[in-house]
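Quick illustration, no need to memorize.
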Amino acid sequence: MTAEHAPDPRAASSGEVTDLLEEEIVLGLRYPRERLVEDELMERYAAKRHVVRSALKELETRGLAVRRPNVGAFVRAYTAKEVHDIYAVRELLEVHCARTIGLPAPPRALEELVAVQREHDKAIDAGDLRGVVRANTAFHRALFALSDNEALVGDIARHAQMTHAIRSVTATSPQFQRRSQQEHWTMIKALEDADTALLAETCRAHLIPSRDAYLQRVAQPPAG
């Protein structure tokens, strides 16, 4: 891990350590199957061992890590079948949610969504990878919150969280960032025009790049 990616050195709570590790996974700074070494994390975050262990347990609960007895914790990796299965569920959840959003969307909600997307635009233009990830998460949270089905919105968030390691393949790619940006604005237009079909189809298409990029990586033979 290079110094430029390291957060400010300070004592962190278990929740903060978990969130920082989650962000590093989606940024591709920690790779699938990479071991998460307690001593390194303790030093990095000036945290006690019990804090780090609690963070790793929560990371496992979020579907981002696996812990092996007497071996340690690792960033979770996925088989091709697991990727297909998870993304099939994500498509069902997100497309259904898009179809149940009441249109036209309230003007205040649209204004807030546009403001979040402008932050996403700025982060992409500035090459601010952390900002891109945070604004992207905020956009989808605000979009699906337009549904009044809290259980559905919660399931969408959990399944999206599980795929952070999968999305890391595209998260840092300017090409994929621009595609994501364009699709976000298409979703906003669909909300403005009360076009449920366009909104649902764009949400479906929005899932494909990260899924397929990870599957392509899985299919590649190991180097050497």
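Residues 33 and 75 are 5 Å apart (CA to CA).
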